[in-house]
């Protein structure tokens, strides 16, 4: 009874270790023929007692075992990570970079990497990765939903060295992807020619109304010195006048659950805001994005990327609905061209 219990414990331990390694082996078609040949030659050698057949049988069996050992070493210490090459949009093929890193002292030969994302699996060949080195390969993958993507899995498989045994490993994919919302061509419904949905901001440096006073700096135009203020304060002061610059096209997304009939309508609204924001940015306009508790504005690409990331990670909250800022676009002011969803 004790022996049976010990045997079960040993078997259980072996299974746990095998599962923790996430490894699987299988004979290839060539390997199956090779294995049948070993059995056949072994049977003939036993029946005939021919030493030469015994020698051939031993050599083939050694090759099979050696192939298995090399297969294990080939995939032993590998890491896979994903990085973006360009912006990643939901529902569109995205250009990614797959980094395969070999941290072991044995090179990787003739592997196949299959990255799984949702229902999509994309495979690519990795001919060689040197010991303690890494390679980057291009990969095109379609991610269906917006948001932060982590926890992807990948299979690494190789039939190295003889094509007899195919070894495969299931590994976690490192890296984090931010998937932007779906974007489509849109029409922005401006309510008047003066720019109902724009905010005009001011800065110093023009010839408009009074903006501020500041201390004189070397190189300032002496015609802008306010002599009365300078005499009163004992230091030269310069009058700065207002310059009107870019008008910002403002977009607002309410994340309150009560502002939307369901989550599908919210996703459609996120897509509309992202599409309108991108359309305005690509037209060269200054943009602004407002969410409850967040506000971004500017006209450079980094601001647009931050705004798209904010939309990518937006979630419904239990807060009460918030009215949008004045002069802002909401999803109701944006319509898709040709009725695209």
UniProtKB/TrEMBL annotation:
Entry superkingdom: Bacteria
Transmembrane segments: 27-46, 52-73
InterPro entries membership: DUF58 (IPR002881)
Pfam families: DUF58 (PF01882)
Coiled-coil annotated spans: none
Segments forming domain DUF58: 213-256
Span of the signal peptide: none
Keyword list, A-Z: Membrane, Transmembrane, Transmembrane helix
Descriptive protein name: DUF58 domain-containing protein
């Amino acid at each position: 009874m004790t022996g049976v219990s010990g045997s079960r414990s040993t078997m259980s331990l072996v299974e746990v270790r095998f599962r923790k390694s996430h490894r699987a082996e299988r004979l290839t078609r060539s390997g199956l023929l090779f294995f049948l040949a070993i059995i056949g030659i072994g049977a003939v050698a036993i029946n005939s007692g021919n030493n030469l057949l015994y020698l051939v049988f031993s050599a083939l069996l050694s090759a099979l075992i050696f192939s298995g050992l090399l297969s294990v070493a080939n995939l032993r210490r590998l890491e896979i990570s994903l990085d973006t090459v360009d912006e990643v949009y939901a529902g569109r093929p995205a250009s990614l970079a797959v980094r395969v890193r070999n941290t072991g002292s044995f090179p990787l030969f003739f592997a196949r990497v299959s990255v799984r994302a949702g229902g999509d699996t994309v495979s690519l060949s990795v001919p060689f990765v040197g010991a303690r080195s890494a390679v980057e390969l291009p990969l095109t993958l379609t991610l269906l939903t917006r948001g932060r993507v982590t926890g992807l899995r990948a299979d690494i498989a190789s039939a190295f060295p003889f094509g007899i045994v195919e070894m495969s490993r299931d590994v976690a994919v490192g890296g984090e992807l931010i998937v932007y919302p779906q974007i489509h061509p849109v029409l922005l419904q401006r309510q008047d020619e003066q720019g109902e949905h724009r905010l005009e901001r001011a800065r110093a440096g023009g010839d408009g109304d009074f903006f501020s006073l500041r201390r004189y700096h070397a190189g300032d135009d002496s015609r802008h010195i306010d002599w009365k203020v300078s005499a009163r304060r004992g230091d030269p002061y310069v009058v700065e006048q207002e310059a009107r610059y870019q008008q910002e096209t403002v977009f607002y997304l309410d994340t309150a659950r009560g502002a939307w009939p369901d989550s599908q309508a919210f996703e459609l609204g996120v897509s509309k805001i992202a599409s309108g924001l991108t359309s305005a940015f690509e037209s060269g306009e200054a943009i602004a994005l407002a969410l409850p508790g967040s506000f971004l504005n500017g006209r450079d690409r980094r601001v647009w990327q931050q705004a798209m990331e904010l939309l990518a990670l937006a979630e419904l909250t239990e807060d009460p609905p918030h009215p949008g800022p004045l002069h802002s676009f909401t999803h109701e002011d944006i319509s898709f061209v040709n009725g695209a969803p």
